[in-house]
Design a protein that fits this description.
By secondary structure, this protein is an alpha+beta fold. Helix content is 35%, strand content 15%.
Amino acid sequence: MAKENLPEYFSRAEAERLFPGVVTASTLARLASQGRGPRFLKMGRRVFYRREDFVKWLEENSVEVRTIDQDEPR
């Protein structure tokens, strides 16, 4: 999904729906309790992520996975 198509703010549950298989609401809650994860805003009991902060966090915490070509020396 293109960054521009994401809502400006979204909840943990919405993040899970927007990024299926990438992050879950419970993982985001655990990371927040550990002082890790994306920046968030808290309104009462509700937590919201700003699009720019969330995408930046995803980019900074992504790992590139490559396969080894059998013809390449190790």
